[in-house]
Amino acid sequence: xxxxxxxxxxxxxxxxxxxxxxxxxxxxxxxxxxxxxxxxxxxxxxxxxxxxxxxxxxxxxxxxxxxxxxxxxxxxxxxxxxxxxxxxxxxxxxxxxxxxxxxxxxxxxxxxxxxxxxxxxxxxxxxxxxxxxxxxxxxxxxxxxxxxxxxxxxxxxxxxxxxxxxxxxxxxxxxxxxxxxxxxxxxxxxxxxxxxxxxxxxxxxxxxxxxxxxxxxxxxxxxxxxxxxxxxxxxxxxxxxxxxxxxxxxxxxxxxxxxxxxxxxxxxxxxxxxxxxxxxxxxxxxxxxxxxxxxxxxxxxxxxxxxxxxxxxxx
Length: 315
Hints:
mainly alpha, Na+/H+ antiporter like fold
């Protein structure tokens, strides 16, 4: 087996399996898991993202992967809506087919495979999830909800406008895109993080990967596949096969190559992310299918991402 799989993917899977074992044994209660998740997303993630982007100059940043990635996501999202209908269920399934676990799995994996250079590319892709997918999914869900409640057309339009603005505000203030944008702005000033602050920030950033992967395993312990296996496999086929193939084909056709193309394809091939699960729970639609898809896609992408890593190699 190629060394990149051994050095990058196997440690990721080992930590997920550790979390899965702890979750199965029920050594951690739901309150503890929630607190650890808050620590990862509200403290460790912003520190890691800000520090990485604080040394990146916009004029040197390659935004082609973000543009191609956004195009691939939109095409698959719209395709899923056409397949399942402009409804709450259709929106949730479209989100699950496109929203990958780019933070909890993507960051540790890309860091191990390609180092900081790979993370810079990844951090230009992550905000697409919040700014494009979450905003679009929220607008579609709220529109479908209003329509299903037989609201009057003018009221629906007014509500849709308010939902769109509120969704955009939440996307920008999310603990993932906000530190990325803040770090980029800081880098343009020419300032540097003082050493006495940079070192503890580095320590916190290094703690994110192991904790995030462990929590992925803990959450998978509560997933139930059962009779939802067929739906989960179909969703996984779109997320783990169709989306990375489409992203790779679009990137290649537009002249991308090397590290940017590799990181983009790996990101597209990551398993279904937690936000899709949260949306399904919040709106009460497709919960069982999405929950099963998180579990199945995480298992399947161990193979598909291995193949992507073998194809591209390490930088």
